[in-house]
Write a structure and sequence with these properties.
227 residues; alpha/beta; 4 helices; 6 strands; His_Pase_superF_clade-1; Histidine phosphatase family protein
Length: 227
Amino acid sequence: MSAGSELTVVHVMRHGEVENPEGILYGRLPDYHLSELGRQMADRVAEHLAPRDITHVVSSPLDRAQETATPIAKVQGLDLATDGRLIEAGNVFEGKTFGVGDGALKNPENWKHLFNPFKPSWGEPYVEQVVRMMGALDAAKDAARGHEAVCVSHQLPIWIVRSFVEKRRLWHDPRKRQCTLASLTTFTYRGDKIVSVGYTEPARDLVPAHLLAGAKPVKGKAKAFGA
C-alpha cells in the first residue's frame, strides 16, 4: 500500500466524569481530578480499545485528561505523550458556577461577555480551536501512521473540530453537542486526508442521565459545558 492510500485512525476521547460537587466551570484550572465514576469510565474505554492497533496515546495536559488517558496507555503498553494543543478552550467564566438560575449568567456584570456568540466573545475563538486541534490530530496521525492513535481532550474543542471537518457552522447550542463523557470521536485518514468521522460511547451506561447530549438541565446539577 502506498503512503498516500494507507489508513490511519485517530480516536479523540473526551475525559471521564470529574469530581466537581460545587458545579464549577473548571476550564483550564489545575487539580480537578476524575471522580470514582470517571475512573470507571476511563477503565471501560481502555478495555474497549484493548484489541485495537493503537501505537500512540496522547493527552491534554490537564489532570482529568491525563488520568483518563493513563489506563489506555497502560493497557496498550505505551508511554503517555502530552500535547498542549488538546487543552480545554479558554473561557472568561472559568472558576464560576453555572447552575440553572443560580450561576454566573444571572449576574448582569457578566452579560458584557455574551455580545457575540458566533466568535464566541466569552472565550477562545472557535477558529483558533480548530487550528490547534487540527494540528494535534495531524501530529497524532503522523505518530501512528498506518495504525491507530488515541487523543484525550475536552468536549468543546472536540465538538468544534468535528464540526469543522463535517462542514457545519462552528457556533451552536451547547446542549446539542454529541460528545458525551468518555466518548470517542474517530477520524479516519487515508494518507493525510480525513475520509470519515465516527462516534461511539463505550461507557454510555455509566454516564448520569443529566449529562447526556440533549438532556434537560436539572437545578443544582451543572453540566460544565465544554469540560
